[in-house]
Each structure stands twice: as structure tokens, then as C-alpha cells.
Amino acid sequence: MTLHTVFFSGKGATAACAHCVKNAIGLPAKLHNWMKKPPTGPVDIPAGDVLLLAMPVYAGFIPAICRPWVEQLQGHGTPAVIAAVYGNRHYDNALLQMQQLLEARGFRVIAAGAFLAEHSIFPEVAKGRPDKEDMDAMTAFGARCAQLLADDWHNALTLALPGDPEAQAPDRKPAGMYPTANKECINCRACSDLCPGRAIPRARPQETDPAKCVQCGACIAICPMQARGYFSDSWKERAPVFAEKCAQYRKPEVFFVK
């Protein structure tokens, strides 16, 4: 039995979650890092294997760029574990969206978890997370998943998850909410090479195409000079307001079939 561990992670938090849960489940794993290598065709996962899908939450949904990739996954009654990693506002419809997408593709979602991480756009929100309590929760979640997989989960009820099944992801991003580079940029183009949306032109890596930017923060995390970030006036205006609204310390939430 192989654990197919699929994740998309701009600044590393979702990858950390995926690895923590994977290690706790304890099965031989095959990694699918969609930040570095997204699928280019169908990905078949047999009934005898397991899928672990870990996604960040953007505006209450999984990243729009990831949805067609998730639709490339093909199960055969294959058990699936899903994890949503969000920046302390709320995970909204992300878990339900993943469940709907996967179960339409032949998977059976048997466990789901919503975990916390530093916000990708407003890093003062949930700063320092995932912390030890978060990582312990991820480990406990993975251990419970391992127990489920060892038991007869086939006759359990369908997993009920929070969210609005009719909700639609927003089709526009707020103005100014995309990273650019300051004068510290050395034109190394590491950001351009990594950018999943191809939003950073190699000839002008200081710039960002806002229409293509997925707001993952990968360019910020990879920059060796810490030259990339959110510098717009609209970002500066929104940052303290958002931080105040999202100051409450939220805890992970987990769900299992019964």
C-alpha cells in the first residue's frame, strides 16, 4: 500500500503539514509536489493505495490553479485523506470543495483536517504558525488516519464536512494584492523560474503580472535577497485591518468517518 502525498505549497507551510501527516500515517509514500511539478495528464491511484491531498486555502477555496490538477487524479474507490492549511481567517469551503472534487473522481474521503499557518499575504497574521501545538495536532490526525486505514472503513457513513456546496470561488482579486520586488533585487530570476502562474517575466523579475499571480508567496520565500514582498499602498492600508479582524487564536479542526 502506497500513500500518494499530493501538495501545493508556496511558502512551505502546506508542505510541512503534508509531511507531518504522511509520517504519522506511516505508509511508504510517493510525493507529488505540485509547486515544482504539476500533473500534465491523468494520475491513476489504485484502490489498494491511499491519497493524501494537502492544499492551502485562498479566499475560502483551494487555489484556482490547482483545481484542474485535482481533476486529473483518478481513484477506484481509493481512500483519501484531505488537509486544508489556512491563515487564521477561515477555511470556509476548502475541505468540502476537495471532498466533492475527489469523490467525483472515484475517491472516498475518510478524514479531513483544517490546520493553521502564517497568512501568505499578511504574514503578521498567525505569525509563527504552525507552532508545536499545530504540529502535534497534525501528528495526531495522521495517527488516527492510520487507525482508520487499518480498520474496515468501507461501510462507514459519508464524511459530513462544513461548507456551502453551492458556493463559488471569487473571480477577482483585490487590487494591489500581488508581490513585487524592491531595489534589493539582483535579477537572479529564481522567482520567475519557480512561479507556478508564470506571472514574473524573466526579463523583468522585479515585476508581476497581477492577472497571472496566484498569491502563493513562493517568490517571496525563494528570494535570496528578501527583495520580494507586498509593497502597494492598498496592501499597507489593508494589512492592519485584516490583522485586527483575524487576531483570534484558532485551533485545528479534524473530521473522520464513523
Structure notes:
With 258 residues, this protein is of the alpha/beta class. The chain has 2 domains: 3-166 and 248-256, Flavodoxin domain (Rossmann fold), CATH 3.40.50.360; 180-231, Alpha-Beta Plaits (2-Layer Sandwich). It is built from 7 helices and 10 strands. It has helices spanning 13-25, 67-70, 94-103, 132-150, 190-194, 218-222, 233-245; strands at 3-7, 29-33, 43-44, 50-56, 73-74, 78-86, 107-116, 180-181, 228-229, 253-256. The strands form 3 sheets. The protein has a 6-stranded mixed beta sheet, sandwiched between helices. A two-stranded parallel sheet has the order 3-5. The radius of gyration is 18 Å and the shape is globular. The two termini are 22 Å apart.
Short précis:
With 258 residues, the chain is α/β, with parallel strands linked by helices. It contains 7 helices and 10 strands.
SSE topology sketch:
Blueprint: E1 3-7, H1 13-25, E2 29-33, E3 43-44, E4 50-56, H2 67-70, E5 73-74, E6 78-86, H3 94-103, E7 107-116, H4 132-150, E8 180-181, H5 190-194, H6 218-222, E9 228-229, H7 233-245, E10 253-256
Parallel strand pairs: 1-2, 1-4, 3-5, 4-6, 6-7
Antiparallel strand pairs: 7-10, 8-9
